[in-house]
Every structure is written in structure tokens, then in C-alpha cells.
């Protein structure tokens, strides 16, 4: 009995999520932008609105497109554009 108590394995650390498209993030998720594979015009426009590589975003709504919070402002993106933005999901 004592051997079984002391032989218990420590809980494994949660696995870190790999990068994924922004469109795959659920409502409430936080993520860091890794790269934007969208056309240059769209990338330039998004950077002007505060969405750039290294910025952190929170998904406010993901039902019809993506509603994001970026640096205290809200930004709406279509699903097609959200699929071209690669992010790293953040914990918490």
C-alpha cells in the first residue's frame, strides 16, 4: 500500500499549443500574433490598426467572423482574413 502511495506519478505539465490560424481560436481565447500570410494591402491596413507580429489579441466573439480586442480597441475581421493570420494561443 505504501509503495503505491509513493509511486504515484507527478501530474504532467500541460502541453503547449502549437501555432494555429486565428480563425481556429475560440471565444475568450488570448493569442500572440506570429505572422500574417494575407495580401500585403491587408497586412499593411491591419498593422495600422494595431494588429501586427508580436501583438496580443483576445477573441471577443467568433460566431460570424472574428471580433478581437487589440490594445484596448475592438477590431472585426472576416473568417477568410482570420485564416491567414497565424497565432500562438496563450494560457489564461
Describe this structure in words.
21% of the residues lie in helices and 34% in strands. It has helices spanning 2-6, 40-48, 79-83, and strands at 20-21, 30-36, 56-61, 66-70, 73-77, 85-90. It is globular, with a radius of gyration of 18 Å.
Distinctive features:
single chain; 92 residues; alpha+beta; 6-stranded antiparallel β-sheet; 3 helices
Structural class: alpha+beta
Strand content: 25-35%
Query: How confident is the prediction overall: mean pLDDT?
Result: 86
Which strand order do you get reading across the main beta sheet? 1-6-2-3-4-5
Q: Helical region count?
A: 3
Could you state the order of secondary-structure elements as H and E? HEEHEEEHE
Overall form: globular
What percent of the residues sit in helical stretches (DSSP H or I)?
10-25%
- Poorly predicted regions: 11-15
Q: Give the C-alpha Rg.
A: 18 Å
Q: How many strand segments?
A: 6
| Largest sheet, strands/sense/barrel | 6 strands, antiparallel
Task: Give the end-to-end Cα distance, rounded to a whole number of Å.
Answer: 38 Å
Summarize it.
This protein is 21% helix and 34% strand. With 92 residues, the protein is α+β, with helices and mostly antiparallel strands.
Which helices and strands, and how do they pair?
Blueprint: H1 2-6, E1 20-21, E2 30-36, H2 40-48, E3 56-61, E4 66-70, E5 73-77, H3 79-83, E6 85-90
Antiparallel strand pairs: 1-6, 2-3, 2-6, 3-4, 4-5
Amino acid at each position: 500500500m505504501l509503495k503505491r502511495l509513493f509511486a504515484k506519478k507527478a501530474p504532467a505539465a500541460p502541453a503547449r499549443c502549437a501555432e494555429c490560424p486565428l480563425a481556429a481560436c475560440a471565444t475568450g481565447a488570448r493569442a500572440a500574433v506570429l505572422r500574417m500570410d494575407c495580401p500585403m494591402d491587408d497586412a499593411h491596413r491591419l498593422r495600422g490598426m494595431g494588429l501586427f507580429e508580436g501583438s496580443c489579441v483576445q477573441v471577443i466573439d467568433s460566431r460570424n467572423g472574428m471580433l478581437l480586442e487589440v490594445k484596448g480597441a475592438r477590431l472585426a475581421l472576416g473568417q477568410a482574413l482570420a485564416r491567414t493570420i497565424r497565432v500562438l494561443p496563450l494560457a489564461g
